[in-house]
Design goal:
This protein is of the alpha+beta class. It has helices at 58-65, 82-99, 120-131, 158-168; strands spanning 50-52, 73-76, 103-107, 135-140, 150-155.
Length: 172
């Protein structure tokens, strides 16, 4: 350390005006109001299913997971082919809307009867439910209600949706 010289600057650097930051170019957005569709390959299906839309309270999802929100209707898709199951599910949701159902149980099975031992209907139900606007949340059922072979589905309150639509169109 013999050839080291002390620094002479013991004060702060004088104020210099900096040029304003240059904004980054924004990516081009589509002019349409259409959301980007969810691809089936983007949806991972685990043994336990859990999905909730943004804004759904964690407490409500926890109640759904515990089975404390009683399912008012049930649909059993066991043994159905995929296309038939899709049509039955669509009719089921229409029925839920007419009956003002808040929570439903859908039994899709665990896939043990499938040729490749993969749960085909479970994967499809996981994907289809995410696409439906009236589905707020869903999760695998409790052990007594089918476990990972069934899901509880929390549906949008149809009365709230009607009130919201009324406000948008100017009616009250």
């Amino acid at each position: 350390m013999g050839d080291v010289e002390p620094l002479e600057a013991n004060h702060a650097e004088p104020f210099r005006e900096r040029p304003p930051p240059v904004p980054r170019p924004q990516p081009q957005e589509d002019s349409g109001d259409e959301p980007v569709p969810l691809l089936e390959s983007e949806v991972e299906t685990h043994d336990y299913l859990l999905f909730a839309r943004p804004g759904i309270q964690k407490r409500v999802v926890a109640e759904l997971q515990r089975g404390r929100i009683e399912p008012q209707l049930e649909l059993d898709l066991h043994g159905l082919r995929v296309e038939h199951a899709r049509r039955v599910l669509a009719a089921f949701f229409a029925d839920c809307g007419h009956r003002r159902v808040r929570c439903a149980r859908i039994i899709h099975g665990k896939g043990r009867g499938s040729g490749n031992r993969q749960p085909v209907l479970k994967c499809k139900v996981n994907y289809w439910l995410r696409l439906r606007e009236e589905v707020l949340a869903f999760c695998s059922a409790t052990r007594g209600d089918g476990g990972t072979g069934a899901v509880y589905v929390l549906l949008r309150n149809p009365e709230k949706a009607e009130r919201r639509e009324g406000r948008r169109s100017g009616r009250r």
